[in-house]
Amino acid sequence: MALTPPIEPMLAEARRTLPRSRALPGGLAYEQKPDGYRALLFAEPDRAYLQSRNGADLTPAFPEIAVAGRSLPVPLVLDGELVVVHDGRLTFDDLQRRARRRGHGARQAADRPAHLIVFDIIDRAGEPLLDQSYRFRRSLLEGLLTDGVLAPPFALCPATTDRSVAEAWLAPAWGAVGMEGLVVKGLAQTYQPGRRGWLKIRARVTTEAVLAAVTGPVTHPSTLLLGRYTRTDGCGTLPAPRRSPVPRGR
Question: Is 200 a catalytic residue?
Fold first, then answer.
């Protein structure tokens, strides 16, 4: 294949709201953003390499993805999100445990199998597709799934050009099953390694809670004990950027 690892994946810039319709070249496509690990799969018959976003080798931790990659009839370089599904939702904790396993431990993880939700293809049969439009690459990817070239543990990332559908994907119900939000792409965009050319919008959920206790100064807390109208209470550490002083009288 023409493309070889490591390759920097194309990245997304965070936004708080959906962009205007002409924010990216060619109009907008909206993809669901699963809660997982970004990964590039370099696959050809009898050989596969799974690369993390930062260039690390994930192949030993996810042997089922490597086996499926080696079984593909045509060399491909796929971009996607590694996920683990359990009880009908994506579970990031299970994915993290899988990522730490190697050798026999990784092979024995059949009770928590991984899947690669594929959202892009950047090389086919040794032909780089970096200069092709997203519309072209997406069509090619959909064809590989339709023709059965890609099958489980590979899955196609849901995508739409309908803004109303994209807005519905930001609903809390999708977050409950492990979808973080959306990635917005331009239909005419090429694939630019390492560049933040896409846009990412996280789903936001608000809820009421009773603040029972804090650790650290009340005006600059490090942990909060919250009581919520759910079956369990919550206690967690606040990241440093969120430990900003609390205004008096509020």
Answer: no
